[in-house]
Amino acid sequence: MVNPGSSSQPPPVTAGSLSWKRCAGCGGKIADRFLLYAMDSYWHSRCLKCSCCQAQLGDIGTSCYTKSGMILCRNDYIRLFGNSGACSACGQSIPASELVMRAQGNVYHLKCFTCSTCRNRLVPGDRFHYINGSLFCEHDRPTALINGHLNSLQSNPLLPDQKCLQCPQEVPPEAVEYHASVAALFLLDLAKAKWPGCQGGTMIVP
């Protein structure tokens, strides 16, 4: 198992030394015939899993991706951090070691994740609205949201409906109140919704 972008190579392992190798995942001794090496540690093949989808990485490829302490399969790395490595706001590259913010599949530098109106930075825990590709803080959200005139937003193809996790209802995007989260800490962006017929629940934003 190889970490792309990492120059570290596993130390040589002899048959006699396997008995004292400890798995970084479970902490148990590795007595298996095969073991994996990632993030400068040894792993049971069953213990090296994607932090997001829990896939056993030894079964799906010969490489894994690491960022901010997470171990990821290729698909989840691209989903969380983008495949271009570029910030959706400024277009500049995002170093592999840098934390990012996410909204609707777009990735941003922390400093670029700002309200489109007041330019104040949105930080983890802040509520925001994502409309037509733009970010708005709670204070500067469009008047249409505040006054309840939602016709123009309901037909917006860029904002697909979400399903509530507590009931089978479709929740239109204008009802979703997003909460900013650092992808490296939470893996998935979380949103909360309040809609007629539903008591409100956690929504997972793709």
Automatic annotation (TrEMBL):
One of its GO terms (biological process) is regulation of developmental process. It comes from the Eukaryota. Residues 21-83, 85-147 form the LIM zinc-binding domain. It comes from Neotoma lepida (Desert woodrat). GO terms for molecular function: metal ion binding; transcription coregulator activity. Gene3D superfamilies: Cysteine Rich Protein. Transcription cofactor. Plays a role in establishing motor neuron identity, in concert with MNX1, acting, at least in part, to disrupt LDB1-LHX3 complexes thereby negatively modulating interneuron genes in motor neurons. Keywords: LIM domain, Metal-binding, Repeat, Transcription, Transcription regulation, Zinc. This is LIM domain transcription factor LMO4.
